[in-house]
């Protein structure tokens, strides 16, 4: 039918089908700022304004919008300079989002902007609560909402006509910057107690949106590194440009759908797709009988994959509810869905294995009986064991024998979802050279190419993987999860194919964090010296062993490395970490930001709290007394390295003590901990306040393995193309990599044209995981920039010397700054002159360089995580009021993007702590199907979030950086758990929660059990 709509002030005629939603009609007409994140009206990514009112366009039929005025983000504003045409520029809301750094992946940004516009159109003087309320219908998984809220408040002020401070380093960011500097403490001391710290004056607490930075005295004064540069992709994302994988129209593109298994464990006796194939509009139906049996691992990791090969694109056996049964490509989504219903499958239902505790017992159903299965290390399909870890450091039994007290307890952590707002999405097509192009929302484009080549029957060289903008990944896209579906269907039909997960598929057929049962035993002397630590983890990898060994290995490698003990134990710690990673008929687990480490810190930090309180020790002093310090050997570095040969590594920098000092001051620990009056809530006798802490460490990349490449090419005007294989999935890595190159080349960031990533054009990079991009890819960028800088200096020296006859200038003495090459006597040529000289005038050459970097070390970031809660002792409700995180991530390249990582990470970790959980029934069917069943935090539900950066200068990196992306995931849950204990003690109870999430029901039951 034909309808007429006013879109962004222009009348349009649309031909729509009866059931077509407004979302689809708008996107089909090129309004790509309208995004898709679910089908059920929960994510808000599809929001538009209809007659000035925010609505979810997925919930409305296009026909119902007839005669109404629709506004999309494209109506707000445009880039101010478009060649000879000058526009009014961006809307103040867009400008504020760009300047404040409110955009990470940017997938929710168009809808957030429209939600904010609806508010400001009616109220130019909103309170923060009103802003949060206005944004509450648009879910954001990246930002923690801190900066979007600040951006809306700033835009409101601009629209009121107020003159705002410029957002540069002299204005807002470093207000209150401490004069105190910090150097890593001398290694090897016997005690890490607080006595060695400088004075305890409470540092000024800044406006929420911006971090406090305690700078390293060894970090030089850089011009671009360390500055709050605007994200290089912010301008396009704030306009809703078609930057994501699904924002691509190709003539004749088919829509793919997958038939998923209704059974947790079954063999396909017979499958008949004949009726589906005959349906008009169906281009292809593929079953296991149509595809070659190529076994592989879906884990997006380097070669060789450190895990078993146990998956097929399609198999004659299904191993979880949601496993693949058949693939369909059709002209429309509706036809594809109809075709799925026409496929007849005769299943032989097999006994399902749903309790990981049963997996290795005799008689358990065997999931992987396929003869093609390829073992890795200790995997054993006959035992349903995907991986086994046995690490002994020192002599644990001797350590226990030397202890005065032994503490032992069991803990449990749940299965949770990455819940990026952009679903998995892939577009595939044959290009004009008969090469398979895969445009996909992935964190690992180079791994996708390598892993898929045998699966598709193509050589690597005939596959090109393009990673456009990514709407969040958090590890969920470190998996070769759906690319093969679209590619098989393109091979079958010869046509372009798009496959996009529904939100239901995200929950039932994607990946998740490994749930684990953990048993921790610790030996302690009466003075608080830890003598031995032993952890056993039973990890449920689900139906396939993707990331099984490495995720669970990191549970011990990072969390069990922090507490080595004191005195002689510090030099020779006793640590045991054993784990079994078992198959069950649950959906597979995989990589999720933090990569196994949050699972380890839940037991470790809950345990440390119990020990400190049982021994009557200050929890902060007890922790610092036993924690790892600079100059000491990473205890696991000689024992384990993700299935590769371990090599010793000494910790070079550790700001943990200062993290504790600063975090303690910011949260007001001394005024709250052990202060009975603070724990009371006036007028609310059912409430108690509590405060808790957790110390954590992560890693930075995988040593001797992770490698990143970068190339830099100089253009005629003195600008540069920086091409990296590194994968910016919303973290801002393109920006920080550009900042490092700009620093070395002496140009503003706007002169670096950063592009990531395309397997045809950008150098190899292992991808975005293991908190490695700033460190690994950044060092590659620095190397490439140094090479380009050298060439510029050489040519500039020649240009500057020429007019003076034979006067020669040592190129090494030429400085690059302010787009100039400047000789020691002050004479200069611009970089544009150098570029023209190189490309057009004299001894012509293309100034460019390519470099790569691999690190022999994985320098850990450290952090102190604090939490304040209110506990309702009548209902068990836990309200987290405040989270403060003090982080040593080395030198901070961009305070906006780095603090955004911490804020967003803390909020994801908060969900892990209190509400997120994926649950299955006795038949293995998931309870969670959408973002209503699975609650992620909304803008109006947030606690106060504060970030403090304690800079150390990591000597293994040219700019002294360490990682920041994953460590915010580690400490929130135990800090909240410890705060709940603290609050309960104030009510005369001792509520020990050992399982997460800490739901009201679980806490209520714990309270009842204490009451007896
Ligand atoms: S796509 Fe409409 S609310 Fe999620
Ligand atoms: S920036 Fe909001 S979902 Fe990524």
Topology of this protein?
Blueprint: E1 2-7, E2 10-15, H1 22-28, E3 47-50, E4 53-56, E5 69-71, E6 81-82, E7 85-86, H2 92-100, H3 109-122, H4 128-135, H5 146-159, H6 169-173, E8 212-214, H7 234-238, E9 254-260, E10 266-272, H8 274-278, E11 282-286, E12 317-318, E13 324-330, H9 333-342, E14 344-349, E15 385-393, H10 396-401, E16 405-413, E17 425-430, E18 436-440, H11 445-456, E19 463-466, H12 483-493, E20 497-500, H13 503-509, E21 516-524, E22 530-542, H14 548-559, H15 568-571, E23 575-583, H16 597-614, H17 619-626, H18 656-667, H19 669-672, H20 676-679, E24 687-697, E25 707-714, E26 720-724, H21 733-745, E27 752-755, H22 773-801, E28 815-817, E29 820-822, E30 828-830, H23 831-841, E31 848-854, E32 862-872, E33 878-888, H24 895-914, E34 944-950, H25 972-986, H26 1000-1011
Parallel strand pairs: 1-5, 8-34, 9-20, 18-19, 22-23, 26-27, 33-34
Antiparallel strand pairs: 1-2, 3-4, 3-5, 6-7, 9-13, 10-12, 10-14, 11-13, 15-23, 16-21, 17-18, 17-20, 21-22, 24-32, 25-26, 25-31, 28-29, 29-30, 32-33
Helix pairs in contact: 2-5, 3-4, 4-5, 11-12, 14-16, 16-25, 21-22, 22-23, 24-25
This protein binds FE2/S2 (inorganic) cluster (FES) (2 copies).
One FE2/S2 (inorganic) cluster is lined by residues 36-38, 41-46, 56, 58.
Description:
With 1012 residues, this protein is an alpha+beta fold. Helix content is 27%, strand content 20%. The protein contains 26 helices and 34 strands. The chain is globular, with a radius of gyration of 28 Å. The chain binds FE2/S2 (inorganic) cluster (2 copies). The site of one FE2/S2 (inorganic) cluster (FES) has 13 residues, from loops. Residues 36-38, 41-46, 56, 58 line the site of one FE2/S2 (inorganic) cluster.
